[in-house]
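Re-run with default settings, no changes from the original entry. Doing this only to confirm the output is reproducible before filing.
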Amino acid sequence: MTARSVFSILLLYAVLPLVSCSDYGLKVKKIDDQFYLILGEGGNSGVLFSDSAVLVIDTKVKTGAERMRRWIDDRAGKKKIYIINTHIHKDHTAGNHLYSNPDIIAGDYGNMFWNAVNSREDLPNHWLSDTMTLRIGDELVFIHNIGQAHSFNDVIVYLPKRKVLFTGDVVLNKVHPFLDEHVGANVDNYLTAIDDMLFTYAPKIVVPGHGDPGDKSTIIEFKNYLMDMREAANNPDLEAQMQEKYLDWMSLPINKAGFEQTLQYIRNSSSLRE
């Protein structure tokens, strides 16, 4: 084999995504021996192991939630489980009840609001109104309620040693946002929260609520999307241009999110009328 051939093979492996399929059909990206990303099957998730505890960031939904729980069982045994829900939507929370006696941390929605829009069996037991830190092995996990953006109480999670930022659905990667006024979606507040992330954190890896992991440019691209859509909502002459620009973006969930839905939401919002 020539040196050129070896270089070509190495280059191929360098550009392939570091995602593999586990025994349970999950898309697992290993960051190091203690920390993994588990992508899709609901919202993107993170799992951090230590000698005595396991941190789970978002617990997915339906079969994805069940598969991830079994995958964690294989590695965690009887360790203490901590769960962080980045927000209230079921695709990020519907696996909460699968864990035995977990500490579940979420933004300060309160029991009444949670039970009105989500399942009682997945109810968190710790409401976060500001910030907190959680020591998991070698990582001091920073948890921040950034307030209203995608929902009334969005939470982001930063792992400073590993320089990984979980944004929940405040940032998506080439996916149209699901905007629901009943849980507080506000495009102006999205932009404020994103600016705060860009100013406060210096991540090497950004884990969006949906879509592939990226870096800081992923946050900037989603910010530009929201600004473009707000501009198109104000100026119909730009609509065709923006539709072409974001033609390859996905819609999750189907029929509830997309180019037209984002435009219409912004047009109906108070921020456009101000």
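The chain is about 35% helix and 25% strand. The first helix runs from residue 3 to 15.
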